[in-house]
Amino acid sequence: MKKVRGRLWLLVLVVVASMVCFLPSYQPAYQALPSWAKAMLPNKGITLGLDLQGGIHMVMEVEEVRAVEIAVERTVTALQDQLVDKKIPVESVKRTGPEVITLQFQNADLKAQIQKLIDDYPTFTERESAGSTTSLVWELRDTDSKRIKDSAINQALETIRNRIDQFGVAEPVVQRQGLNQIVVQLPGVKEPKRAKDLIKETALLEFKMLDEDNQMRVDLPTRIPKDKEAEILLQFENMLPEGDQILFERAIDKDTGREFRIPYLVKKRVMLTGDVLSDARVSIGQFNDPYVSITFDSRGGHEFERITGDNVKKRMAVVLDNTIYSAPVIQERISGGRAQITGTFTTQEANDLAIVLRAGALPAPLKIVQDLTIGPSLGQDSIDKGVRATLFAGVLVVIFMVAYYRLSGAIADFALILNLLCLMGALSALTATLTLPGIAGIVLTIGMGVDSNVLIFERIREELRNGKAVRTAIDAGYDKALLTIIDSHVTTLITGVALFLFGTGPIKGFAVTLCLGITINLFTALVGTKVIFDLSNQRHKVETLSI
User: Fold this and answer.
1) Which of 400, 533, 546 is nearest to 464 (CA)?
2) Are strands 47-48 and 433-434 parallel, antiparallel or unpaired?
3) Dmax over Cα atoms in the chain, in whole Å?
4) Rounded to an integer, what distance in angstroms lies between the CA atom of residue 351 and that of residue 78?
5) Quick one: three-class SS letters along 391-417?
6) Angle, to 10 degrees, between the axis of helix 470-502 and the axis of helix 529-539?
7) Which domains does the chain show, CATH number per domain?
8) pTM of the predicted model over 0.90
9) 229 and 194 Cβ atoms separated by less than 8 Å
10) Residues 478-531: pLDDT tens digits?
11) Half-sphere exposure of residue 105, counting CA atoms within 13 Å on the CB side?
């Protein structure tokens, strides 16, 4: 009797633990608990997946070629600074291809001196320049090109993950797919447009100087209507000075409230980039206008102080993704490693800007390949159908087991209910995400749950036909079916683990419920039903068995 009592208490303990673990998933009961009880339980239970509560599913592609171009352009800027520091006169240093840098100079004697600089840039190799004595062509090595592309995808993955974490989405899925794609799933998002804008914004922050010495800046209009930028760029395309570009600042007319653009003539050379930022916060200005206060790291602070000191009384443009946010006049050398980004944006826009600056810029633009917004009504419909399918399958199995195995079938049905209860408790304790394929895994578990009992009952029938007593037949049935049940469950468990390790989001949901279901089923089939049979034999000597 001791042996049976021990298993009975274990069974009761598992049931109670499962019910307690499930409480956070049933909010009315959870909220009624005292505070000390809530502190002992997880603050959330089962989370509904994207297909059940709605949200966003996006597949984005990283523009790898642009990532390489950005890396090469940074090398061009660094090379220009190095040539100035070493007082080596050159006509031009510019990117002439996605992976190519061309240096032009007048004095052929400088060629050997410039060639020595390539040692400082081991990622580049010198290419044949058709015997020219006044030019050098450097090309990015293939291995470094591949490294930059792969690094861009991994960096984009991490940057998106950081932005989503700060946006506050529960149970997001951000993972790499294929060679250059990223899958993002955001369940329960209430503002899909804002979330998409936040994710795909490159957030490449640059500080550039305005070209105020060229006459062309006077020819530019002081303001233009919104959506007329392309016309201005086309009009002044052939008039642009070498090394300059036209960028636009967004502004709003205070009288009419209409948005317009202010064109500026800006030097292409980047003075400082956002990768030297250490923090970005939203602050409120003197007139209750929100702005973003940025803090540089030590290297960026020293560089910003040097740039502002060299350009006093000149205008510096704060550029984010080729849009000017502000173009203030530098009144004096700015020390302390702090600056401000002002503009005509709302508090929410300022918050989003601070988020992307803190999380870091994407290494390259993202192209949206697939964009799906799933409504909560569709998710509720999926939940209703999933519940109906589970109940329908459960009712059919219960009826079949009672009709075919009679009272023993009813005991197997008890084990099935016990299995589902323990499964829901385990999912809640793990704060797992329940998806539509996960519901399919639960339905499959119902079939698996009685399958073990079918094997046991058939063995018991066989022993009874051989003339053995009920107690002996039950023990022999469980003993002989044990290895078969374990073998079948282990092989299914291996499949479930493989699906979890190598599958994507929905497949993982199916694998979790399947693995938990068959693991719990081993306990309920081999311990749960056996305890009931043993208790019956202990209290009353059973002469016949309803099976």
Assistant:
1) 546
2) parallel
3) 112
4) 32
5) HHHHHHHHHHHHHHHHHHHHHHHHHHH
6) 160
7) 2-52+375-539 (1.20.1640.10), 201-373 (3.30.1360.200)
8) no
9) no
10) 888 888 888 888 888 898 888 888 876 667 778 888 888 888 888 888 888 888
11) 21
